[in-house]
Every structure is written in C-alpha cells, then in structure tokens.
Amino acid sequence: MDLKIAAVGRLRPGPEAELVSDYLARIGKIGRSVGIGSAQVQEVDSKKPGMAAEGALLAKAIQSAKPVVVLDERGRIMSSPDFAKQLGNWRDQAFSDAAFVIGGADGINPSLRDRADLVLSFGKMVWPHMLVRVMLAEQLYRATSILTGSPYHRV
C-alpha cells in the first residue's frame, strides 16, 4: 500500500522539508517488508482562496485513493499503536493507495471531509499546516516501524 500526503501550500526548503523527506524515505526503506510501499507528498496551490477551490485540487490530487484520511482538529484522537493497527488493517484489506489530506487555513471542504474513511486529529490545539506535515510524516513512519516490530516506538 502506497501512502500519499495531499496538502495545500508549498513547503519551502528548510528544516520542515528536510524532516518530511527524511521520514518518507525511512518509510520507503522499512515499509516493503510489511506491505507499505512508497510515501510521497502531493502539494496543491490554489490561485483562488477558500475551501471550495482547495477542496477541488485536493480531490484531484488523491483521485480514487482509498482509504482517505482527513486531518482536522475535530477528528478522532488515536494513540500511535492504534494508528499503526488501523494502517495495518487497511493494508490487510489490500488497499493500494492511502491518502492523507491536510487542508488550508480555512479547513477542509465538507464534501471532501464527508468522503473520508477517517477524520484524524493531532489534538485540540491548532498546528501550523507546514508543521502538521512533519507530524504526519513522523506518525506514518512510527506506524510503519510498529508494524515491523522495530524498537523505534516504545510503549
């Protein structure tokens, strides 16, 4: 199962971009042994501000991916082991592409949110969208490492 992060905005070169690249590369190295393939970021940038325009671009970026996970502060809060278990369940259901969606400053278009198989929250605090990419990439790596039995995650 390949992993795609679809996100509004462009991540400029710097520490955040380096961290995202590092975690996604790590997933590519360890994931194959447990059925997790490549991990990548698809950035979208709308000339028109707002949820509707961004939602259309995000929907195009994820196309027919299944499952779809939308990040939203009102979503479900999960532990890392529970997130890994969910990722493993999707892999075991033979899904080929999982999409993780990070919206813009106005949030996620309701039609895209309604399409989600999981609405996930990293807590009630609001995080900068560029930092959320790092946090999501790290949690995807952590989930993959949990599935491999790696000591990276200690409970």
Topology readout:
Blueprint: E1 2-8, H1 15-30, E2 39-44, H2 51-62, E3 68-77, H3 80-92, E4 97-102, H4 110-115, E5 118-121, H5 129-148
Parallel strand pairs: 1-2, 1-4, 3-4, 3-5
Helix pairs in contact: 1-5, 3-5
Walk me through the structure:
This protein has 155 residues and is α/β, with parallel strands linked by helices. It has one domain: SPOUT methyltransferase, trefoil knot domain (Alpha/beta knot), CATH 3.40.1280. It is built from 5 helices and 5 strands. A 5-stranded parallel sheet has the order 2-1-4-3-5. Helix 1 links the parallel strand 1 and strand 2. The two termini are 25 Å apart. The model has no long low-confidence stretch (mean pLDDT 92).
Number of helices: 5
CATH topology: Alpha/beta knot
Q: What fraction, in percent, of the residue positions are helical?
A: 40-55%
Biggest sheet overview: 5 strands, parallel
Structural class call reads alpha/beta
Q: What is the straight-line distance between the termini?
A: 25 Å
Strand/helix succession: EHEHEHEHEH
- Count the domains: 1
Overall mean confidence score, pLDDT: 92
Strand fraction band?
15-25%
Q: What top-tier CATH class fits best?
A: Alpha Beta
Rg, rounded, reads 15 Å
Shape label:
globular
Q: Spans with pLDDT under 50 lasting ≥5 residues? A: none
What attributes characterize this protein structure?
155 residues; alpha/beta; five-stranded parallel β-sheet
Short description:
By secondary structure, this protein is α/β, with parallel strands linked by helices.
